[in-house]
Specification:
alpha+beta, about 25% helix, 4 helices, two-stranded antiparallel ribbon, about 110 residues, three-stranded antiparallel sheet, 5 strands, elongated, binds zinc ion
């Protein structure tokens, strides 16, 4: 199963989904393309299955999707964060054991 689609307007090979290409490169509404080319798939079968099985949705302009981590369902925001990576703690203070862990050495007198 190929995840490549061929744009019916320019014959360019596009991976996974034609929607951004049609909208951004041709300034065409993908739904208008669907009415002009009713047999043209807008998404590859693998991409469509991923979107469905991972409950991909767009919230506030960011794609969210479900993932399974050791049997626990979690939600990730694509390109923004990951449920297993904690948010930055701006109040965090590096301690000497942390510095040793990361290879920082105290400068004498520093
Ligand atoms: Zn095209």
């Amino acid at each position: 199963m190929s995840d490549q689609l061929t744009c019916p307007l320019c014959n360019k090979q596009v991976p996974f989904t034609l929607v951004p290409h049609i909208r951004d490169d041709h300034s065409v509404d993908p739904l208008a393309l669907r009415s002009q080319f009713p047999n043209q798939a807008l998404h590859s079968a693998g991409f469509a299955e991923f979107v469905k099985s991972r409950s991909v949705s767009k919230r506030d302009g960011t794609l969210s999707f479900q993932l399974d981590v050791a049997g626990a369902p979690m939600t990730a925001r694509y390109g923004v964060d990951h449920p297993l990576i904690p948010a930055t703690d701006t109040t965090f203070v590096w301690t000497d054991p942390h510095r040793d862990l990361w290879g920082y050495r105290r400068v004498p007198g520093g």
